[in-house]
Each structure stands twice: as structure tokens, then as C-alpha cells.
Automatic annotation (TrEMBL):
Heterohexamer; composed of 3 copies of TIM8 and 3 copies of TIM13, named soluble 70 kDa complex. Associates with the TIM22 complex, whose core is composed of TIM22. This is Mitochondrial import inner membrane translocase subunit. It holds the Pfam family zf-Tim10_DDP. It is found in: Mitochondrion inner membrane; Mitochondrion intermembrane space. Belongs to the small Tim family. GO terms for cellular component: mitochondrial inner membrane; mitochondrial intermembrane space chaperone complex. It comes from the Eukaryota. Transmembrane segments: none annotated. It is a peripheral membrane protein. Keywords: Chaperone, Disulfide bond, Membrane, Metal-binding, Mitochondrion, Mitochondrion inner membrane, Protein transport, Translocation, Transport, Zinc. The twin CX3C motif contains 4 conserved Cys residues that form 2 disulfide bonds in the mitochondrial intermembrane space. Residues 23-82 form the Tim10-like domain. GO terms for molecular function: metal ion binding.
């Protein structure tokens, strides 16, 4: 059975167009989330950890937390601006 078959039907019927669209949306969302986390992690680490060691100092940990929070907030603002008129 390929990834486009409907697993609940037990046969090889194709997914409906809406099911396929939903599946693609989910895959794109997952890919976006992975890329977002990699980017944020890399950028925040570069910004906050100037002397890498075996553990994070309190100030490094706080900096990373604030940095990630700012990226998430900015992403939310951008998403709202991009998609507010699309419904």
C-alpha cells in the first residue's frame, strides 16, 4: 500500500482531493516547524553562547529563552499579517 492509499478502507482506493490536501498541509507544517526550530536554535545559540562549554550558564540559558520567545512572537505576528486577509 502506498502513502496515497486510504489506510482505513483496507483497499487501494485513492484519497479524496481534500484528504490529499490535508495530508500535504500536515507534511508542509511539519517541515516548516523543523526548519524553524533549526534556524532559531542556530541563531539563538550563535547570539547567546559566546564561549561554548560543557553546560550553559544562567545568563546563556536566559538569553536563549528570550531569543526563542522573540522568534516565536515574531513568527506569530508575520503569520497573522500574511493570513489575515486570506479567509
Amino acid at each position: 500500500m502506498d502513502s496515497f492509499s486510504n489506510p482505513s478502507s483496507g483497499s487501494s482506493h485513492q484519497l479524496s482531493a481534500q484528504d490529499l490536501k490535508n495530508q500535504l498541509k500536515s507534511q508542509l507544517a511539519l517541515e516548516y516547524a523543523q526548519q524553524f526550530l533549526e534556524t532559531v536554535g542556530r541563531k539563538c545559540f550563535e547570539k547567546c553562547v559566546t564561549k561554548p562549554g560543557s553546560s550553559l550558564s544562567g545568563s546563556e540559558s536566559s538569553c536563549i529563552s528570550r531569543c526563542v520567545d522573540r522568534y516565536i512572537e515574531a513568527t506569530g505576528i508575520i503569520s497573522k499579517a500574511l493570513f489575515s486577509g486570506s479567509h
